[in-house]
Write a structure and sequence with these properties.
By secondary structure, the protein is α+β, with helices and mostly antiparallel strands. It has 12 helices and 17 strands. 44% of the residues are buried. It binds S-adenosylmethionine.
Length: 396
Amino acid sequence: MPIDEITQRVSDRYAQAASTGEQMCCPTSYDMADLQSFIPEEVLRISYGCGTPAGLKTVSHGETVLDIGSGGGIDCFEASRLVGPTGHVIGIDMTDTMLAIARKNAPIVAANLGYTSSNVEFRKGMADAIPVIDGAVDLIISNCVINLAPDKRKVFREMFRVAKPGGRFTISDIVTDQPVPQYLVHDAEKWGNCLSGSLTLTDYIAGIVGAGFLGIHLLKFSPWQVIDGIHFFSVTLTGYKLPAGAAVSAVRYATLRGPFSRVVDELGTTYLRGIPQPITPEAVCLLSQAPLVSHFVLSSGPQWLDRADDRWTAVYPADAPCLWQGHFAMLAGPFVEAADDDHHVYRRGEPLEICSKTLKVLEADGYAPHFAIINRAGQSVSGDAVSCSPDERGCC
Ligand SMILES: C[S@@+](CC[C@H](N)C(=O)[O-])C[C@H]1O[C@@H](n2cnc3c(N)ncnc32)[C@H](O)[C@@H]1O
């Protein structure tokens, strides 16, 4: 399908959905009772997101927030409440029917929040040509939209352009564990349903990093659908446009605390747990961001850590047989590569088959926030049939 045709079909699909109030799309987990206290039902019933990017404690008072593909405005209105009357929210969408509903409800939400005027505006525009000036936005949010855009790399570049230096994004979207084949890519119905346009997690994050954002990491993961063996799942990712020019800092070294035994950051530097690594001012800035900062000791002089040190963290696998039950783990940041204490090397976005022991390790604090885990077994697996002993060669 040519790009113009994809865009037109997606817009028609959402115009129709907005008119009929049809239920669509994916896992979100909004607190609807809370939102109903200030957002009209007309907006809530056309919520077509796959996450809650404004509701994950990401929005701060007084900020300028941009919502790409704002639809009926649900996340803009939640952001409106969170930024307060001194903040500003801009929603952009390409579909007139969506914009009309969002604009109609903006003054109602403002009145419900006790604001003298609305702090939300809705602009007509495309995700890959955002109608916002350079460097204007503290926080970019988006909820199940970028998968619908034909040129996602252009969208990511636009996000980087409009973000303030020191700004950030939190986006929920549908991604996959493997490339979507052409017979699905050219299925217009599945494009509109947030499936066919989805990128692999690897390509999605690569596009964001390619645009200039750093410190990309996972806030939330929810499985959604499996079609012809392809896992479609929702992720909420966040990351930073680091300030231009590094701040003056006494920090010169970073020592990895764990639980990973080795990591590679997005600037290409490798860190081994417990061993101080000299770092550049740019790396100081990157490693000072959450959640990276919790993985390191940052210091002005070299600091070694050993197992006896309280700051050393590790999660070791149980001394028990492995059961292969169909699980695959995908590292979703904040590192491009990371190793655990059982010789597994995780590369960002790439599914790695793991056994039951490793699953337990990755479900532990320290690891769990950084992994999306799927199960590719088509039917229930007989654990005994596939178990192996830790002593046997070839086991995990
Ligand atoms: C799945 S809905 C999500 C709407 C809203 N974010 C929510 O959570 O309810 C996708 C929305 O993005 C808009 N959209 C899709 N592709 C777009 C693009 N390339 N540029 C601008 N808006 C787009 C559609 O018009 C629709 O309102």
